Structure formats: C-alpha cells, structure tokens
Amino acid sequence: MAPGTFTRTEIASQPAVWQATLDEIGGWRNDHAAALAGLADRPLIVTGCGSTYYLSLHAAAVLRSVGVQAWGLPASELVYFPQTQLPRGFNMLAISRSGTTTETLWAAERYRETSPQGRLLTIGCAPDSPLTAQADISLLAPQAREQSVAQTRSFTSMTLLVQALAGALAGDSSRLDRARRLPNALADLVARERATAQQLGEDLSIERFFFLGNGPLYGIACEAMLKTKEMACSWAEAYHPLEFRHGPMSIAGPPALVVGLISDSAAAAEIAVLRDMHGLGARTLALAETRGDHDWSGVDRVIELRSGLDEWERGALYLPVLQWVGFHRALAKGLDPDRPVNLTAVIHLS
Question: Which end of the chain is more exposed for a tag (fewer CB within 10 A), N or C?
Fold first, then answer.
C-alpha cells in the first residue's frame, strides 16, 4: 500500500462525509428538545485532548458567540487542577473522536462524581464508545471515523456538530441549514486550490510554519499547526495574529511561511500582520472568505473560501487545504502520513 493511502482518502472524502453528517443530524435538535432545555443558562466547560482540545477552543468561542458561557480546557487540567478552573454549577461538553481517550474519560467520570445534577454532552465519531455511554446527550459523526492516526475528516465533521449544538442552544433553527453550504463550498475550494496546497507542501525550502487565527479561528489555527507537526514532522506554531508581533516575529525570516486565517471582525489588522511579516522576508498565505476591498499587498497568495457564511460558522472550511499541505510535505520528506512518528490513534493511560 502506498504511503498516505488512508490519509489521502480521508482528506479527499470530506465534502461527502460533511454532507452525510449534516443529513444524519438534521432532526437531532427536535429529538433532544427536552434534554437541551435550559442548557444555555448554565456555564459550559468544553474539553478534549490533542486535536479535540483545539476543537474545544473553537467550540467554546462559537458557543460564547450565541450567549453561552463556555470555556475550552484540556481534559488533564480538569482531572488534576479542577479547583483552579471550574465555575459553579457547570455542564460539560467532552469531545473525543474515539470516545476512549483516557484523560477525557477520567474528566467525564470525575464530573459525574462531583456534579450529579449537571449534564454531560459529548461530540464524537463512535456511537458505542465508553464516553458516549456516559452522556446525557451525544452528537455523533460515525461516517467520519478514520483508519489513519492524524485527525482530518473527523475533526472537521465534529466542527459541524459544534455548529448544530450552537444552533440548538441559540434557538436558531436556520443555523444547520446554513451549514449545508459547506460541502459544496469545500468541493469548489479544493478544485481551485489543490495544486496550491501541493506546491506549498512540496516546497522544502520552507522550514517553519506559523498559523495565525483570532476569535473562533484560533483553535483552528492550532489544529493546522498540529497537523503539520503530526504528518510532516515540521516546525509549526500557532498564535493570535497580533500576538505574533510580540516576540515570535523574530524568527519569521525567509525560511518561514506565515499563514493567516482571516476573520471578518479583524481582517484589516490580520492582513497588516501578514504584510509586516512579508517585509521581514517571510512568505505569506491568507485564507479569507473573499478578497473584498482589502489591501492585499505583501500577501503572496490569497485563497478565497467563498462559503457565504460568517467567521463563526465557516471554521471547518479553513482546514482541508492546510491538511493537504501537511500531507504533501510528509510525502516530499519521505514520510508516511498514515503512520506519524511516535504517535498512535488513541492515547491510553493506566
């Protein structure tokens, strides 16, 4: 079997898997109306490990945007340092692709022991997992399960489940309808930009990757960083865009690619950061909804998402092109994206 066979298939399948996921959860809100009642009135801790911790950062930001008091924390922090992290009377949303990650299970079990009146929600891809069995409410994307180690379609499909939950808690029945634009938007995006992703991935003169994202896009930037490390064993970091000027730009020279995940709220400021980094010799790439009327001078390449959605609803669309960059870089370095160095699909601790 050729290196990266599973990963290639899983990244490429995302438009179809997203569509299947959206179709399957179409009636979820109505089926769980009673269980969802009042959830938005209490604080919500969102947790996971690795990729799903980064998804928890994105999810918490999205949920805050619809009025839910939400915070994203690593599961291990909840297990070992609960006294420094937790508000009173909170509910928990635990996110896990497999539903078997040890720290996430520990966090859920501790929550059940210490908050018997609270409600546990889960997002994942495995209907019969131990985590799902503990939950009061579950949102699942079984079509997104993967054979490879690095999360690709599972992460983005679980991001769509976050959108479904946000719509349900906000009483916005049209949010899921708007998300149905994403599969076709992704198919169009990949058709336009797959060659760009391959070119960037195969360019081994790039020695450092920096992914910059604000608000709901910070967790997405962190996940892009993690994919670059996992698949391609390459130096990658993630920052809030304006924070990048406060020290990290000292290493943004000619060997670096600085990737901006451009929001709506802060687009001009984010583009200005890319322009500054270009002036320091870095190559620059922007992913934006559209070029609009912004000044893109100093940005080497602008990839338009063209989703018709705002920054709070299109997060999943930023990742597939960057997943392809990591995939092609791994192959160019003689690595197998299906078998990342030192990693396994699930972390089990005793």
Answer: C
Place of tokens 């003169």: 205
pLDDT band of residue 344 (cuts 50, 70, 90) is low
Mean pLDDT of all residues in 146-163: 94
How would residue 85 be classed by pLDDT, with cut points 50, 70 and 90? low
Nearest to 211 by CA among 177, 157, 166, 248: 248
Cα(78)–Cα(71) distance, rounded to whole angstroms?
A: 12
Residue with tokens 């078998």: 339
Name the pTM for this structure.
0.95
Cβ(297)–Cβ(318) below 8 Å: no
**Helix runs in the chain, H state only:** 5-12, 14-24, 28-31, 33-36, 51-65, 75-80, 102-114, 130-134, 153-170, 175-179, 182-202, 218-232, 267-279, 319-332
- 3-state helix vs strand vs coil in the chain, percent to 5: 50, 15, 35
* Region for 67 from its dihedrals, namely left if φ exceeds 0, alpha if ψ lies in -120 to 50, beta otherwise: left
What pLDDT was estimated at residue 343? Answer: 47
Classify residue 106 by burial, with Cβ atoms within 10 Å: 0-12, 13-18, 19+.
middle
Two structure tokens written together for 288? 């934006």
If you average pLDDT over residues 224-252, what whole number do you get?
Answer: 94
Cα–Cα nearest to 227, from 203, 215, 205, 211: 211
- pLDDT, residue 56, reads 98
Sign (positive/negative) of CA torsion 17, 336, 323, 225? positive
pLDDT of residue 38: 85
Q: 255 exposed, middle or buried (CB, 10 Å; 0-12, 13-18, 19+)?
A: middle
Q: Which of 203, 220, 204 is nearest to 311 (CA)?
A: 220
